[in-house]
């Protein structure tokens, strides 16, 4: 790696550490969630946060937008939300001379960090309105294409599918999310700290540590980070072994999984292991980074068959079995 790049990378690592500290001061007891969400942004992708209501998912996104210096917008997804409520629409206007023309009114998707709150409460038609935006950073309305600001990221929150009034996200949209981040209940000590920090007379507000230009440059630097051949092969082995039709996949997985992760999963892992290394102040990713990110990257890109679901098979156990088999083979 070029010495100038190394120097710039060292400075970036220090600022990322400051940003992480600032976020964790306001999102108490969710250090792993914060790390994964920051990794998604540094990789230039989108993340899906899954957890019960009231666990701080919305607060996390708001805090990250402020600390990372991004212009953020929020959309509360509801069953009656329409695609135009997200993308915008063309309205007919009349000038002083009587001439009529259409003017495009931008929707809330035109921002740098979009919080899609409770995304699975909207209908599949409305959910699909984000597909082009998430993949191509542009939207098409009435035959015209409009570019979104740079950078553009979607952090969506999702309630568990078992709750009433939720719709499962289409597979094509799930694949657009770089990773799925599970938000669990905080530990008792952390919950006590949350109580004291959020119910006092004055609640501290987050401050900006980075700018949008800093984030764009960080994304560029992370793509320059070298990845060892052993890590590349590990990523390929992991993703391919999670496909039921691959010869390398274990027999229990072949029997249980209907479909497995595609090439986007390998791309996501390749970017995220670099981002995780950068957050840890390292110049290259390691095998531990692949293991740590296997579940967030793969779990939403795999589907259990009906029989496996009826038998209580868990995707997490299948992914663990693949990782264990890879370690034994090594």
UniProtKB/TrEMBL annotation:
Q: One Pfam family for this entry, by name?
A: AAA_lid_2
Q: Where is the ChlI/MoxR AAA lid domain?
A: 255-319
Every copy of the ATPase AAA-3 domain together lies at 46-179
Please give the Gene3D superfamilies that the UniProt record associates with this protein. Answer: Magnesium chelatase subunit I, C-Terminal domain (1.10.8.80), P-loop containing nucleotide triphosphate hydrolases (3.40.50.300)
| Name of the protein in its database record | MoxR family ATPase
